[in-house]
Each structure stands twice: as structure tokens, then as C-alpha cells.
Amino acid sequence: SQQGEEDPQALSIQEGENATMNCSYKTSINNLQWYRQNSGRGLVHLILIRSNEREKHSGRLRVTLDTSKKSSSLLITASRAADTASYFCATDERGGNQFYFGTGTSLTVIP
Amino acid sequence: NAGVTQTPKFQVLKTGQSMTLQCAQDMNHEYMSWYRQDPGMGLRLIHYSVGAGITDQGEVPNGYNVSRSTTEDFPLRLLSAAPSQTSVYFCASSYSKRDQPQHFGDGTRLSIL
Prior knowledge:
The complex is a heterodimer of chains A (111) and B (113). With 111 residues, chain A is an all-beta fold. Chain A is 0% helix and 59% strand. Chain A is globular. Chain B has strands at 4-7, 10-13, 19-25, 31-38, 42-51, 54-57, 64-66, 76-78, 87-94, 103-104, 108-112. The model of chain B has no long low-confidence stretch (mean pLDDT 94). The chains are: A mainly beta (111), B mainly beta (113). Chains A and B meet through strand 4, strand 5, strand 9 and strand 10 of A and strand 5 and strand 10 of B.
């Protein structure tokens, strides 16, 4: 399987704390994307980072990418109860037409 | 703008039955794809299409068929349902495969008895 893996599988934090989740992947990529999935809903795109970028910010989100280690991390700062969801990374395979999703991190933010 | 619409939202089938999951998008996106989501497995790509008339297999295509006769629609057919196909199915679309976010529907929850 070409699927990536996310770490940790589950994370529980207090509101206001920062949440960090990691993604490792296997192939050479054009870009890596992060998605959020609320319970019972489809995935919502959060941020895209290209293979020639090392860090990207969007609001309370900070994403890093290390292509030499084939890994990425998503940092959510000052978490809120509404951030409770599952988070997935997805890689855009270089030279191919497929996306590969990680197994996801389930984040619970306790009010 | 409806985005990506999937129907039905829920379905129960008996083993051996066939059915079609519908997916439509109104954003003029060229790239469309079907995923299945199983507990602990993340999303796995079933089939995808880079434009009308062009389809290709993903990671787990066996037991499924697709066609893309128009830009808007990308139906997924289960040929002979098996209990192993019990899953949540998601359709997604994007302007192109390259450097574009994917837009997801809300999924079809399918149970095969």
C-alpha cells in the first residue's frame, strides 16, 4: 500500500493548548494536503504545501514539510472545542494521477 | 453552488445485488475520484477520472465500475455486492489533479448484508 501513516492515532488536549500531528509518506510528491473531517461528514480541505516549500501558515494552522524525511506536521495553535475532528494528510504522487491519504489523527479538544 | 452531491446518503443491500452510487459536481471540475473509508484504514482510492471519457483504477478497484460521460457526473457501480464492500464511500472533485484542493461530498453509507 502507498498509504501514509499519521501519528498519533488519537490526541486529547485541553482547550487553548496546541495540537501537533505528524504524517509520514512513501512516494515522491508534488504537494501534500491536510484535511479535516467532522463526525459523519465529508473531508474539508485545510491547507496545501508544495514539495519546494518547507513551511506554510493559515490562520491558527502551521504546516511543515521535510521531503528528505518524507514527513509533514500540522500544528493547530490555541485549540478550540470546534477543532474536535479527524485530520488527514494526503499526498499528490509525483508522476502519477493518484492521491494517497494517511490513516488519520482523531483530535479531541476538551472545553 | 451545491458543490459535490452524493446520493443516496444511506443504503442497505443484500449480497449479490448491484447498485449505482451517484456523484455530481457543479464546479466544472475536471478531476473526480471515488474513495472508500473503513475504520483504521483512512481513505483508499477506488477509481478516478481526469476528464470526461477518461477513467482509471485506483488502489482498490476490484468489484467496482465507473464511467465519466459528462464533466459533472461520475457514478460508481457495485457489480455484485459483497459484505467486504460495507463502507462509507466518498466522491471528490478538483479543477485538476495538480496543486488543487479536493472538494468532498458528504458520503454514502453502504451496508451489505
